[in-house]
Amino acid sequence: MMEEIIRVENIRKTFRLSRKEQKLEKTKEKVKVAVDGLSFSVKSGEIYGLLGPNGAGKTTTLRIMSTLIKPDSGDVFIENNSVVNKADTVRTKICFLTSDLKLEDFFTPNYLFDFFSNLYGVDEVVREERKQKLFEKFGIDKFAEVQVRDLSTGMKQKVSLAVSLAHNPDIIIFDEPTNGLDVVTAKKVTDYLLELKREGKTIIISTHIFSLVEKICDRVGIIVKGKMIVSDSVSNLTKEKSLEDVFFDIYSEEVGEEE
């Protein structure tokens, strides 16, 4: 039986809204509750998906798990290390990749990989072996000395992926890993996630793509308005219906009356 490697315990996060944000949100409330008492766990060696509509709290949850922001209350434990009290330790064990990640235009993939490897104290020999493997796998090797500003969107995403994995972390957290990618690049990314799983890595992804969850995830948590509505294996949820149908049944129950 796989052990729990991540525990998310009753996290809550709010953000103060500016007047402009209030207009965009169509609300008079000055505070937005992004995550509202969220709890779930992830087992070692599995791929866990967070599924929900835009604004459900998926990205905020992953940013808390990755120590980028602190929860107002609650905590997350990565291998029993608190993201609130032991953030530095947690950062050595994880990587976090988001499609919002912006690489500096004037750096090259080669420089970026070396820079981040050095930050994590990766041995030079190990660094070169790992760089060669990742660059060849994603076709970055031909663009290793090309400045980021001259790379395609898909290549930038692949460089971001390679750089985030420079220190060979055991826990991989991806926010919308295939967002904005063409179908060929998206397949390479999803295939590599499955390869990482076979290597024993633990992976958490957020997405709104049902087919991606059905293809690669062992378990999935469905989040609506910052709350975890259900967390179960994909096989259990899709015994009688597609994941898409299950999701919209749950979504309608939670917000149907309001809308």
Description:
- The protein is of the alpha/beta class.
- It has a domain at 4-23 and 30-101 and 169-255: 3-Layer(aba) Sandwich (Rossmann fold).
- It has ten helices and ten strands.
- It has helices at 19-25, 58-65, 87-93, 109-119, 124-137, 153-164, 183-198, 210-216, 234-237, 243-255, and strands at 4-16, 31-43, 47-51, 73-78, 81-82, 94-98, 171-175, 202-207, 219-224, 227-233.
- It has a six-stranded mixed beta sheet with strand order 6-7-8-3-9-10, sandwiched between helices. A four-stranded antiparallel beta sheet has the order 2-1-4-5, covered by helices on one side.
- A hairpin with a 2-residue loop joins strand 4 and strand 5 (81-82).
- Helix 4 (109-119) runs parallel beside helix 6.
- The radius of gyration is 19 Å and the shape is globular.
In short:
By secondary structure, this protein is an alpha/beta fold. The chain has ten helices and ten strands. It has a domain at 4-23 and 30-101 and 169-255: P-loop containing nucleotide triphosphate hydrolases (Rossmann fold).
**Beta-strand share of residues:** 25-35%
**Largest sheet composition:** 6 strands, mixed
Output the CATH homologous superfamily of the domain at 4-23 and 30-101 and 169-255: P-loop containing nucleotide triphosphate hydrolases
Shape: globular
Measured between the Cα atoms of the first and last residue, the distance is: 42 Å
User: How helical, in percent, are the residues?
Assistant: 25-40%
Output the radius of gyration.
19 Å
CATH arch. level architecture of the domain at 4-23 and 30-101 and 169-255: 3-Layer(aba) Sandwich
The secondary structure category is alpha/beta
